[in-house]
Specification:
With 373 residues, the protein is an alpha/beta fold. The chain is 64% helix and 9% strand. β1, α3 and β2 form a beta-alpha-beta unit.
Amino acid sequence: MGLIGDTTTLVLRELLIFKKNLRVNLIRSLIFPIIFVLLLGSFGSSPKNIPVALVNYDNGAIALNFINTIQLGNGVKIVSQTTQQAAMVLLSEGKVAAVVVIPNGFSSGVERTVHVYLDNSQPQSASVASATVNAAAAKMGATSSSASLPGGSRGLVSVVSNYVYGASSNYLSFVVGGILVMVASFGAVFTSGFTLLSDRELGNLKAFLTTPINKFSILLSKIAYGTFQSILSAYIGLAIGLLYGATIAAGVVGFLELIWIVFLVGLGFSALAIALAARMKQLQTYALVAQTLTLPLSFLAGAFVPVNLLPSFLLPVATVNPLYYAINAVRDIMIKGFLPINTLLTTSLILLTFTGIMMFLAYIFFKNTSNNL
């Protein structure tokens, strides 16, 4: 039949098995996202050392005193002092949670308004940054206001907050963005690998290898079925999240981009699952290794807390983690309302490269395994 025909036939076989155990498979797909969305979406942590970009057009004594007051404690950390245009770029890229602008004339009393621009795609970080600036202003006899102060109140400091990105977001949207990618990777790993090992234990794999079908189609069918299961689990998680109050700020276009990213995650981790399962003989061993691998990768990718809150020695690990880029892209779609084309291309390239490497390893390991059956 050829590679495509053999692969299609084997995928249909996997789907028939899925249909036969439909109730169990659906419950398995439901339980994981329900637990994480409903439980983790209901509370948050209190992050510290929130990265903030500072724009100081004044440089007077009072302005410097205000800056020193902001840095008291460990609420925020000023990581950059730059121009407002450059600072807003950092904000849009998610490298800082807030931009604090001190206008010219602040120390002299001509202009006593501090402008704070927030990225609420990380709502807890934005909240801490806003509260820290408000507290610093309060120590200087300040008021928080969205309007200009009257002439007789020049002695006060007015803090004007503007949620530039993700104005309507909440912690639930933040969590759901991470859970979607996490569920997709878990669904792929725990489906592809288990079906391969199950067929080996039942003798089906050996039977397939003795037939005239293309051997590579066996591998592709397992990857395709794992991708299907991961996408199903992720979309169930998305539906639960939306019903619970999460949003997709980017609309229809963002939803299509989200589908693409989740598909690439499922494809890559299905290939990873086959590579792992091909080197193992027992389901128990595979389950232990798969859980030990996928759960830390999800946490190191910032599925539940921002990556910048991780210990510094773990940050290099996050930058080589494909889930890190997938989660950031999904959160941009769900919270910020847009995903820059260069970010979409970069994320796609990273996930496709990861998929290609995993497929190559899966092919090599599966070939060696089939020769030893």
